[in-house]
Design a protein that fits this description.
By secondary structure, this protein is an alpha/beta fold. It has 10 helices and 10 strands. Helices cover 41% and strands 19% of the residues.
């Protein structure tokens, strides 16, 4: 089964065709990163306008790269939540138009579930159940993937997600957008023990995340140094910040795996491209004898191949939509059960 995936939740306009949820036939991404760089972050209105301009050509290129026509596609999958509402509406509206014009099934896909599916494209042996650590700019989450369309959250972010913390600290350190990438590059030249930064801890919920305090500590440190005309080594601060976040993500994930009985862990999301996170989680899994799956760097960020992959499994589970499908800025994962004490209900 060949599924056309469409992704437009933030500042990448993407289209891809994936066969049977596992084989990428094409994967096209039109990035707006350079355009948003001058503003220090994504401008939602500008992102929506560029999606409108790019989406037709991106879908056409995905079809050409797969040597297919629209009639060869079996279904159309689209990110409908969560994300920037204006950006999402472009992709959803376009996908609904294609589905209506061609009579193809329309499959709604949750963006976070799509990130989890990125690993299916590279690791044919990966099947549920397993423990997922999904880390991006808007979401940080540990979840049990009990089936391809069933998620049970063990822990999630209470405020700033890990990626958001990276980006906001990077902006305060005067790194260009996207900040997370430049933090990673600078960290390679710095001392991860140079600064003592607070490690977020939530007493009543051991697997939840909170990175707002860490972000505030870094921003306040930089402001104080500026007022006192002191110089802070950005590489050292970047390395210390990265070490802190990677340690928190790894420690909570390994603890959850032990408590809930998982020996297979899958890392995904934009922050899964961070070298510090990859290295620390890999080392911890190796020490415990756990199997760790990670996407290639190209599939860590937003892309449509992961949406098409998850769309395949949604379709098999009977999850489809009609022309009433609407975009949603926020939405829980499909079938998830959440308890903020860090335990499943």
């Amino acid at each position: 089964m060949r599924i056309l995936g469409i992704e437009s939740s933030c500042d990448e306009t993407a289209a891809a065709i994936v066969e049977n949820g596992r084989v990428i036939l094409s994967n096209v991404i039109a990035s707006q990163a350079l355009e948003h760089q001058k503003y220090g972050g994504v401008v939602p209105e500008l992102a929506s306008r560029r999606h409108c301009e790019n989406i037709l050509s991106v879908v056409q290129q995905a079809l050409r790269d797969a040597d297919m026509t629209l009639q060869d596609v079996d279904a159309i999958a689209v990110t409908f939540a969560p994300g920037l509402i204006g950006a999402l509406l472009v992709g959803v509206s376009f996908a609904k138009g294609l589905a209506l014009a061609t009579g193809k099934p329309l499959i709604p896909v949750h963006h976070t579930e799509g990130h989890a599916a990125a690993n299916y494209l590279l690791h044919p042996q990966l099947e549920p159940p397993y423990l997922a650590l999904i880390v991006s700019g808007g979401h940080t989450r540990i979840a049990e993937v009990t089936d391809y369309t069933e998620f049970r959250t063990i822990g999630r972010t209470r405020d700033d997600a890990a990626g958001e913390c990276f980006d906001k600290c990077a902006r305060a350190m005067s790194f260009p957008y996207p900040g997370g990438l430049h933090i990673d590059l600078a960290a390679k030249e710095g001392n991860p023990q140079a600064f003592s930064l607070p490690k977020p801890k939530i007493e009543d919920s051991p697997y939840d995340f909170s990175f707002s305090g860490l972000k505030t500590a870094v921003v306040n440190m930089l402001h104080h140094a500026d007022q006192c005309h002191e110089i802070i080594d950005r590489s050292d601060l970047a390395a210390s910040l990265q070490e802190n976040i990677a340690s928190v993500l790894t420690e909570k994930t390994i603890a959850a795996a032990k408590e809930f009985g998982y020996t297979t862990i899958a890392l995904s999301g934009g922050v899964s491209a961070n070298s510090g996170v990859r290295e620390k989680l890999s080392a911890a899994c190796a020490a415990e004898g756990y199997t760790l799956y990670m996407p290639t760097i190209a599939l860590c960020g937003d892309n449509a191949a992961m949406i098409a992959s998850q769309g395949y499994y949604n379709y098999l589970a009977g999850i489809t939509a009609d022309e009433s499908l609407n975009a949603m800025a926020s939405k829980e994962l499909h079938g998830e059960s959440v308890n903020l004490t860090g335990r499943n209900t």
